Amino acid sequence: MIGHYTVRDDKRIRVIIDTDAGCEADDPFAIAQALLTPKFIVKAICAEHFAESGSMERSANVAVHVRDLIGSDVPVMRGHDGPIGSPSEMCPPLSEAAAFIIDEALREDDHPLFVLCLGAITNVAEALRVRPDIARRMTVVWIGTQNADPEREAIREFNAGNDITAGNEVLSSGVAMWIIPLSAYSTMNVSIAELDMRVRPCGELGRWLFQQLVDYNNSDVAAWTCGDGWSLGDCPAVAVAIKPDCGRFRTVSAPIIGADTVSRFDASRPTVRLYDTVDSRFTLGDLFAKLALFAQAQQ
């Protein structure tokens, strides 16, 4: 236990973290925040691929490292090693991540199940292909997609773009789904100076989280960053699972993700929850407090 409080058992939820943690620097912060959240009964961390060869294994390795820094025994499951492909293609053997999602969804447990998807949504799509009936037994929270904005040129939204087929299959499945699109998750802004002050002093975990972000920020693959700030864009999935009303949301028809990763809406489709905003003060304040409390508990 960290801090001086507990969460009543009837308010706790089961959580599976699905993450492309080997991609860049923000996933490890969200994994740590989730593992340190008393409301969460974290059942597993599932590794996702991204747009590089061997990326799923890299994600698994980073997830293991974060887990070990916290001293957790949560299992890390390997997922599909690339985009899922069309339904007509021959499916490979079920990944251990997809198999775990199925088993946990079918488990009789009074604690609701939330799958927090911080990257491509391939593992969830794979599970739903095999057992579509689990759609009614879980809530999927996805950091992904983007809404059309006539005032801005669309960019390729990374998470949806890494497996558009999977995204559209999950969005069509009828699963309870909370979407946090680019316009919302990109508002989790923090300066690197603040991370230096508030994360780096938090023990071995804080030092590693800070340094891996600095190392990535200074690398050749991070030419897109501003240099002195960051958006911890995966943490909103944790925040809304803790407090679903910590942002403004509306019920909409499940979007169809286009080849450009822009959402298009069709009133005939299942409905989903779409967050227009997420409270960055709540999200980042919770992260920083839990890292500090964990460091205090380790002393």
If you had to describe this structure to a student in words, what would you say it looks like?
It holds the Pfam family IU_nuc_hydro. By secondary structure, this protein is of the alpha/beta class. The protein has a single domain, classed as Inosine-uridine Nucleoside N-ribohydrolase, Chain A. It contains 11 helices and 13 strands. It has helices at residues 27-35, 55-70, 96-106, 122-130, 158-161, 164-172, 182-185, 192-198, 203-217, 235-242, 280-298, and strands at residues 13-19, 40-47, 76-77, 113-117, 139-143, 146-147, 176-180, 189-191, 229-231, 249-253, 256-257, 262-264, 271-275. The longest helix has 19 residues, at 280-298. The two termini are 14 Å apart.
Computed CA radius of gyration, to the nearest angstrom: 18 Å
The run of helices and strands is EHEHEHEHEEHHEHEHHEHEEEEH
Portion in strands: 15-25%
The name of the CATH architecture is: Alpha-Beta Complex
CATH topology grouping = Inosine-uridine Nucleoside N-ribohydrolase, Chain A
Shape: globular
Number of helices: 11
Q: What's the count of strands?
A: 13
Domain count: the total is 1
* Cα separation of the termini: 14 Å
CATH level-four homologous superfamily name: Ribonucleoside hydrolase-like
Low-confidence stretches: none
Largest sheet: 8 strands, mixed
Summing up helix and strand content along with how strands pair, one would put the structural category as: alpha/beta
Strand order of the largest sheet: 3-2-1-4-5-7-13-10
- pLDDT average, as an integer? 95
Helix content: 25-40%
CATH class: Alpha Beta
